[in-house]
Amino acid sequence: MSIYRNAVWFVKGLQEYTKGGFEAAAKLFAPADLDVNLSGRSFMITGANSGIGKATAQEIANRGGIVHMVCRNKGRADAAKDEIVERSKNQNVHVHVVDMSSARQVWEFAQNFSQNNSVHVLINNAGCMVNQRELTEEGVEKNFATNTLGTYILTTALIPALKKVEDPRVVTVSSGGMLTQKLNVDDLQFAKGAFDGTMAYAQNKRQQVILTERWASQHKDIHFSSMHPGWADTPAVQSSMPSFHAKMQSRLRTEAMGADTVVWLAASPAAIKQPSGLFFQDRKAVATHLPLASSRSTPPEEEKLLAALEEFALKFKP
């Protein structure tokens, strides 16, 4: 990982990704952008039982949307659902138990869901940062399986359903950490050298941004976007990055602040006036590379990523 990229990124983060950065950006927000009634529109949110996913689900439910919470743990999902319903008085909140690290489960869920439900907006929020190299039962490295392959399969499988509705959107919660990474298609499962969970996570988040750009060019009738929520105080940050959380806790954003741009991209009429395929931070499209960072990938490298994901996806397709 480039020392230059890391240094520039951290300084940028202290200015922009903190609670103060959000508060400064929010002064320019148009309040009317989220003054919307989402009744009749269906939102699927992965990883919706805590953190940014739960905050997003709450905001969508508050505005009358149909919420489909895709979560791994039924007990935590049911508890989060009850809280969301209680606060929003919206009964149209549904739990689906799916492990996003299991390619077969994701395929089966998406295929069954499409047969019985419509979806207007897919929010790819589920993610993990596993700090020791670990394989799933299907033999896939867990960070890659959850963050990249699960996102790829769910999105790909739901594209036909999305194309049947009005104003379809796909929002992928990436991370500004991806700015520290150049796509590495030669070691997608981090089998070479010493394993670094933070680097693996950032690499996955770079992959998500590239996927968003590719999907946008392939499917013009769906609005795709990726985004960085900033540095938010979530259970995932507390457990995966305890030292960072301890040092930065007073400056971290709330979960609602982290979710703001997700909700804006998913629900606001203003968001779809932006070109498809862009990367957002605090309701604005921002660059996907740091200045002079040498992090751009070539079209053949990106094609190799897509080919590898398609090969994995077909391997596990029921």
UniProtKB/TrEMBL annotation:
InterPro entries xref list: NAD(P)-bd_dom_sf (IPR036291), SDR_fam (IPR002347), SDR_member_12 (IPR052992)
Q: Which residues form a coiled coil?
A: none
Task: Please give one Pfam family short name.
Answer: adh_short
Residue ranges annotated as transmembrane are: none
Q: Which domain of life is it from?
A: Eukaryota
- Name the chain's protein: Dehydrogenase/reductase (SDR family) member 12
